Amino acid sequence: xxxxxxxLLREAINSDYAxxxxxxxxxxxxxxxILAAKEASSPLIIQASESTVKFLxxxxxxxxxxxxxxxxxxxxIVFHLDHSRKLEIILGAIKAGFTSIMYDGSHxxxxxxxATTREIVKIAKAVGIPVEGEIGRxxxxxxxxxxxxxxxxxxxxxxxxxxxxxxxxxxxxxxxxTAHGMQKKNAKIxxxxxxxxxxxxPDVPLVLHGSSGVPKEDIKRAIQLGIKKVNIATELKMAMxxxxxxxxxxxxxxxxxxxxEGIENVKREVLNNIDILGSAGRV
Length: 283
Known about the structure:
The protein has a single domain, classed as TIM Barrel, CATH 3.20.20.70. It is 49% helix and 18% strand. It has eleven helices and eleven strands. The longest helix has 23 residues, at 255-277.
């Protein structure tokens, strides 16, 4: 069943787990993610980036959202627009039925990021849709967004406080050492910075982007220090590719066969992440 992100994050903020936010590229990813959530009785967030929006289109995505609502049965799910920088995409997502959006103004000067995010919050909240904002710059490549290592900006504690108070966002993505698109788990989280931000904003769900490059134990520690939404994309893409390659290596050319193998692989990866996040059995 579809819900808004604030509902799930409010429940997580007072507990010891985080909500997994899993990116999709097509229907197969969506099926795998929901199957895992149903098996684990875990709430979840399904994410579509601007690149996925361009690839699938809002008409098709609106049908996927309706399918997800029905297929998930009693599992609460959020359909979230990830890393959007364009107003027309945000408005299209709201019209298509998304139940949460992220406006990423992290590339802008602080004051401009605040002003633009505040306007997006005003528009979205008028129709009951919560907004995730970002302060600081997270490195790596997230489909259409690329941030070089020399462009990374760690989130300053005072900036995080001001940004949250001035914009009214529901959740806050912060830059604390992770990077998008990492295929090896060698990212180093600045736990001191995370702890300082959480101590000043204890009731604000903090968001970890680029989690695929973070060791399991570090994710668990980050959850105890205020991270309540963890974005997962690269690991799912790798799982889908590995499953399809394995099926193709066995000689099949039947799409139903290799896509089924991909779905099963993604499902296993989602279940693994649900275990790490501690969200199993929360429904």
